[in-house]
Target: Thymidine kinase
Amino acid sequence: MAKLYFSYATMNAGKSTLLLQASYNYQERGMRALVLIAAFDDRAGKGRISSRIGLSADATAFAHGDDLYAMIERLHDEEKIACVFVDEAQFLAEEQVWQLARVADRIGIPVMAYGLRTDFQGKLFPGSMALLAIADELREVRTICHCGRKATMVVRLDAEGRVIREGAQIEVGGNEKYVSYCRRHWDDLMNEV
Model:
């Protein structure tokens, strides 16, 4: 039975690296892996996923309102898909998470979603909230704070490296914009303790 998996972490934990490795394993065995990424996340180029350690791959870009179930069903009818991978799954709409669950439940294709759990203000992303609620299996990918404790939070920085405490929930960026911390150090920075 196919399942919906959600591997979550903070920034720089290696989520994209894990996704690319798992996708490669399918492809190496002659199986088709469909890799999805939000269209507006073009840091590595439109329809491309890249990891900090230099791995990259082409991906199918999707927009916020796209019906992922219909898209995957159509692509599967054209050529069998063995597994669906979603990078930056926090950018999914709640309905898209349900569509991915239906892919696992009705088409029988496992779906592996990788993304952030919370934003820079410590709030759940809508896509992550839905995945935490309905995924069959949850997996935490770990990274560490500068103090050595498990990092579970992230701060957003401005161009001068100052902590930003307010703003839009979604702002695409990498190491130049986000730093992972344990909850204590995140709280110190966000609340100027």
Summary: The first strand starts at residue 4 and ends at 9. The mean pLDDT is 90. Helices lie at 15-28, 68-78, 94-107, 126-134, 183-191. The chain has one domain: 4-142.
